[in-house]
Amino acid sequence: MTPPILRHLSDLRAKHATWIRAGESVAVVPTMGALHAGHLSLVEAACADCDRVIVTIFVNPRQFNNAADLASYPRTEHDDAKKLVGFGVDVIYVPDGGQIYPEGYATNISVTGLTDVLEGEFRFGHFDGVATVVAKLFLQTGAHRAYFGQKDFQQLMVVKRMARDLDIPIEVIGCPTVRETSGLAMSSRNLRLSAEGLERAAKLYPIMQQVAARLAGGESFAPLADEARIKLQAAGFNDIEYFDLRCEEHLQLLDRPTRPARLLVAAWMDGIRLIDNIAVDVLGN
Ligand code: PAF
Question: Where in the sequence numbering do the catalytic residues fall?
């Protein structure tokens, strides 16, 4: 049996009240649907940790900078519900637009600093949309814990900061990126690549791993980044928007991993924008 789908906040709140009365812990896994193994790993972690699990599916118009991208975003509710069978999900919350942005809705949540760089530079307004909808989903679900993928590392940091700054009593948990056997990070965008494009895109991960290994060996980032960009171009990535080494907490640029750091990349392959990131060992540890 597929988990029940609730579309109205009042129904979700009624369910939530019975769980809280019974002293149960509640998890939320926010998604925009088109579920793949990466999402399911979050669901698995949530079900292992908490008594009750809500998966939300809402294609959030406020985080798209491009109307065509929003229009073509896959809406696969029926298939998504089937994929959630067998995990122990209690509710799939698919709010209709009015539950999230009712008539006259006027509030925007903007996390400054962290959102000026990386995705924030290339997708203007994107993180305001994410922070706003995620704050609403946290408050609507009343969850104790929320699960996000490290694949969208900057999003994870932004959401953590937003919850902390707004005193929303929720623990935000980042789960490891799930990869294809080729090493390519799972993403709904991968479906838009040809078999040959997928093969070329898979070269990204080993290139990142080589850079991470050499950084851990003490080399400085700038020449490694130049080399990596040449290799990525040779693999068929025609526009590399960023290939950065940044500290995890504030996303400031680094030349050496002297504190917890990530290598973060956004690059285009065959008209598809791919992002990925990996942790880099801290020097001297
Ligand atoms: O990562 C996503 O799918 C979305 O950005 C999220 C967190 C569900 C907010 O719409």
Answer: 39
Query: Quick one: pLDDT at residue 69?
Result: 87
Using alpha carbons, select from 211, 207, 231 the residue that is nearest to residue 219.
211
Q: Are 148 and 156 in contact (CB under 8 A)?
A: yes
Q: Which atom of ligand 1 is nearest to the CA of 59?
A: 10
> Taking the domains of the chain in order of start, what are their residue ranges?
5-175, 188-277
Quote the CATH superfamily of domain 188-277.
Pantoate-beta-alanine ligase, C-terminal domain (3.30.1300.10)
- Mean pLDDT in the chain? 97
- Whether 285 has a pLDDT exceeding 90, the answer reads no
Q: How far apart are CA 2 and CA 86, in angstroms?
A: 8
For residue 104, the CA-to-ligand 1 centroid distance in Å is 23
Nearest to 55 by CA among 150, 171, 141, 116: 141
Compute the C-alpha angle 178/181/184, nearest 5°.
60
| Residue of minimum CA distance from atom 1 in ligand 1 | 31
Enter the CATH code of domain 5-175: 3.40.50.620
Whether the model clears a pTM of 0.85, i.e. scores above it, the answer is yes
Give 134-162 pLDDT, tens digit per residue. Answer: 999 999 999 999 999 999 999 999 999 99
Strand, coil or helix: what is 39? helix
